[in-house]
Amino acid sequence: MTDRPTSPAPDRTGLRHLDELPKGRFRFLALDVETAGRGIGSICQIGLAFVGFDGDIATWSSLVDPRAPITRWTTRVHGLTDADVAGAPVFGALFPALRPVMEAYPVVQHSRYDERAFDAACRAIGAQPLRCPWINSVTLARRAFPELRGNGGHGLANLKGVLGLDFRHHDAGEDARAAAQVALAAEARLGHQRSLGPRHDQLRFDF
């Protein structure tokens, strides 16, 4: 069983959303970011999903001041405006707390956009990129659900309907949870191997 993360609160779907980064032991994390549209590193929202050994998922998210105006096009995608992120912490203020949490686990992302965004944001503040195993849930979904190729594809929007996921697309916390659920669904279809990391049991997808 997973050590319960701190400060659980129900979100709109009855799942748990956290006000603070949790302490505990997890199988893996999932990450999603939204950006301002002024370069891939212009992160304006970060979402993390924490997946326990019992399959429990809790999410954490934060708005981020990208220090650049949010474009009208990206507002149409994720709904965030300059007013929404006014007064939010900048990436450099959040990253010191995020690094040790994220580097302790494999991190799932749905496409490599989130990894590239984090790398660019790190470069912008003069920090080294994250050193964690990155897992692409698109790759997992393609292997687990090959019948979707040419039949809606493996994007989160299509997988939402196919797998019966309940999330609000283009909200970083909810997209992170969806990426975690895609990884778990692929695992259920194909199986998995678990390896013992130096700190605790960690997930390794080997298909």
Essential attributes:
207 residues, alpha/beta
Mean pLDDT: 85
How does the major sheet shape up? 7 strands, mixed
| Element string (H = helix, E = strand) | EEEEEHHHEHEHHHEE
Strand arrangement within the widest β-sheet reads 1-2-5-4-3-6-7
Number of strands: 9
Write down the overall geometry: globular
| Helix/sheet category | alpha/beta
Distance between the termini: 25 Å
Q: What count of helical segments does DSSP give?
A: 7
Estimated radius of gyration: 16 Å
- Helical fraction: 25-40%
Amount of beta strand: 15-25%
Low-confidence stretches: 1-14, 193-201
Description of the molecule:
This protein is of the alpha/beta class and 207 residues long. Helices cover 34% and strands 21% of the residues. The chain has a seven-stranded mixed sheet. It has a two-stranded antiparallel ribbon with strand order 8-9. Helix 5 (137-144) runs parallel beside helix 7 (172-190). The chain starts with 7 loop residues before the first strand and ends with a strand. The model is unreliable at 1-14 and 193-201 (pLDDT under 50).
